[in-house]
Design goal:
Oligomer: heterodimer
Distance between the termini of chain A: 61 Å
Number of strands of chain A: 3
Shape of chain B: globular
Structural class of chain A: alpha+beta
Strand content of chain A: 15-25%
Helix content of chain B: 40-55%
Number of helices of chain A: 2
Shape of chain A: elongated
Largest sheet of chain A: 3 strands, antiparallel
Number of helices of chain B: 20
Radius of gyration of chain A: 19 Å
Number of strands of chain B: 16
Structural class of chain B: alpha/beta
Helix content of chain A: 40-55%
Largest sheet of chain B: 9 strands, mixed
Chain lengths: 97, 494
């Protein structure tokens, strides 16, 4: 089975971003992530020999970009997210009328 | 030396804050993203604009700035967070009253032998599968321990008409007890409506029952899906629908369809049947992986992709029916459009976060055991009682402390689940731990391979695509589905 390899520079992507992006493809592929030097090597092995793999590298690169944006959103908003949820759901246990 | 000043925009740039947001590239337009706020406000914009927004490079002078402010995706010092807090609070307001749907399984007996049946039906003579008087009395006591002021009491089976005496005794006990509780209670009978007697109809009318039945399509399909030894399930159901409408009123009888593999080949015939029978809503409901459906899945089942292909075809046909002047809504599309187009919550327990199982619904089974959902009951009937909350002999407080409820709490909040946490659709989607347990053996589940997720994503993608590409007439149709009290004319004006 052909293994597809995608390189994710560690200067651009954190380990969590790489894991999240690769996880999205864990239905169709066995995933292996190797961190070496200044990059992550993502190895995808198709679970099914008939899978169309021609766009997977392009797709994974897009996913890496999107997960990096999501990580940025999380870093900017995690504190306010908790405050908003606490404010919005106060009394949701049914004790408040 | 002359002083050089930055232009005014330089002092505004970066003065906003990004609010928690989620996004998804549109499957049909890779460079555009569907972006949602915590409360489900949404917009579609180029991916490059999203990246600029997150990087802090958006200028207050841009129209996009105001657009994102209004959608609660960014904020600045002049914009209070109250609308966003209020939006989240409204969207999740179903949490404030506890379970509203209470299902009483009065008997497992049924005269059908449907291959896709979710329940462990029993022969019509097997009265040992009827709910006892003691279990019924205790279940009614438990019902009034819940805090909700608005309750729906639904009688299910098997076929509840085969143990109608218990329907009567439970209804009367609830009405009696409610004289001191003053809750608003809606009764529902989920039934084939076969062999309804005038006495039964008068009782149902007296207590303003809603009748919910199943109509799978034209006669040949309905009878094939729902075999009786007499081969006349369709005729009996139509007779029941007619009698229910005559005595209870047109709007008191609704129907839904269960889709087998055979059904998927005949969307037009199914829709035409609903029109022919005068229904104005149709619920295109795929099979569930429980009960008899699990054993016969290889014969009657189908993939999520097959279902979605059918659904797209059927929805287009329904839109054409509406354009032809006959009002017909698809119930699941109505539910999802109501979430896309209004800030309000819905009453559909299968699509909630926290999960509707236990948080929105309780099932009192015939034998006195209590479950958080019908699906949990099905699993128990198959020998797996993982999700039993307890029995009607125990107080509600003990159910809430049960291991099953603990598992539902841990796996039932979609916003905290892997992959769901980042999904743009999560503000209007739900978690279904019991479905994931049934299909994947794990309540949290693996979203990339989850049929639940694939179905939800596929339907939401399609409905959003249709909305974005719809002309004025189509949008008015979808808007009228989302706003049930809004007529087509009002929707067009909007």
């Amino acid at each position: 089975m052909k293994i597809i390899e995608v390189i994710a520079p560690a200067s651009m992507y954190s380990k969590e971003v790489v894991q999240r992006a690769a996880h999205r493809h864990s239905d169709d592929y066995f995933i292996e992530i190797v961190q070496g030097g200044e990059a992550f090597q993502i190895r995808l092995t198709p679970k099914d020999g008939t899978l169309d793999t021609c766009r997977i590298s392009l797709q994974l690169n897009n996913d890496l970009l999107d997960e990096a944006l999501r990580e940025s959103v999380r870093q900017q908003t995690s504190a306010i997210q908790e405050i908003l949820l606490r404010a919005a759901l106060a009394g949701a246990s049914g004790g408040e009328r | 030396m002359s002083k050089r000043f930055n232009p005014p925009s330089a002092f505004l740039s970066g003065s906003y804050r990004v609010l928690p947001l989620r996004f998804r590239r549109l499957p049909w337009s890779d460079e555009e993203v569907f972006v949602t706020s915590m409360s489900g406000d949404w917009t579609v914009l180029p991916h490059s604009d999203l990246a600029r927004t997150i990087s802090g490079d958006l200028s207050p002078a841009e129209p996009l700035y105001d657009e994102l402010l209004s959608r609660n995706l960014i904020t600045d010092e002049l914009s209070p967070l109250t609308p966003l807090i209020s939006g989240i609070r409204t969207r999740k307001s179903y949490l404030r009253e506890g379970p509203a749907l209470h299902i009483f399984v009065v008997s497992l007996r049924c005269h059908h032998t449907c291959s896709y049946c979710q329940v462990s039906r029993q022969p019509t003579g097997a009265s040992n599968f009827d709910m006892s008087g003691e279990a019924a009395t205790l279940a009614v006591e438990r019902l009034f321990e819940w805090p909700g002021e608005n309750l729906t009491v639904e009688f299910q089976g098997g076929e509840p008409l085969l143990h109608f005496d218990r329907v009567v005794s439970i209804t009367e006990a609830i009405v009696q007890a409610n004289r001191s509780h003053n809750k608003r209670i809606q009764f529902v009978l989920a039934s084939t409506l076969h062999d309804l007697s005038e006495i039964q109809l008068q009782f149902l009318a007296e207590h303003r029952f809603q009748l919910s039945t199943s109509l799978d399509g034209p006669e040949w399909l309905h009878n094939a899906n729902r075999p009786r030894t007499e081969k006349d399930s369709y005729r009996r159901t139509l007779k029941g629908i007619e009698a229910g409408r005559r005595i209870l009123g047109e709007d008191r009888v609704s129907a839904l369809t269960t889709l087998t593999k055979k059904s998927l080949e005949h969307p037009e015939e199914i829709i035409n049947e609903y029109v022919k029978q005068g229904f104005h809503s149709i619920f295109l409901r795929p099979l569930s992986p429980y009960g008899f459906a699990l054993r016969t899945g290889h014969r009657i089942g189908y993939s999520v992709d097959d279902f979605l292909t059918f659904y797209r075809t059927a929805l287009e046909l329904i839109v054409q029916v509406n354009k032809g002047g006959y009002v017909l809504e698809e119930s699941y599309a109505s539910l999802l459009y109501s979430q896309f187009l209004t800030p309000f919550p819905h009453g559909y327990v299968d699509l909630r976060s926290p999960t509707g199982a236990g948080w929105g619904a309780i099932v009192y089974d015939y034998d006195g055991l209590v479950y958080p959902s019908d699906e949990a009951r099905m699993l128990a009937a198959m020998g797996d009682r993982t999700w039993a909350l307890g029995t009607v002999r125990e107080p509600v407080s003990s159910w809430l402390n049960s291991p099953a409820m603990q598992s539902l709490s841990e796996a039932g909040v979609a916003e905290a689940l892997p992959t769901c946490a980042d999904c743009a659709y999560v503000p209007i989607c739900g978690a279904d731990p019991i479905d994931h347990y049934a299909r994947q053996g794990d309540p949290i589940g693996h979203r990339p391979s989850s049929p639940f997720c694939a179905k939800q994503m596929g339907m939401m993608d399609h409905l959003i695509e249709r909305w974005l590409k719809a002309d004025h007439a189509e949008r008015s149709i979808f808007r009228s589905w989302a706003l049930p009290n809004c007529s087509r004319n009002e929707a067009e004006a909007a």
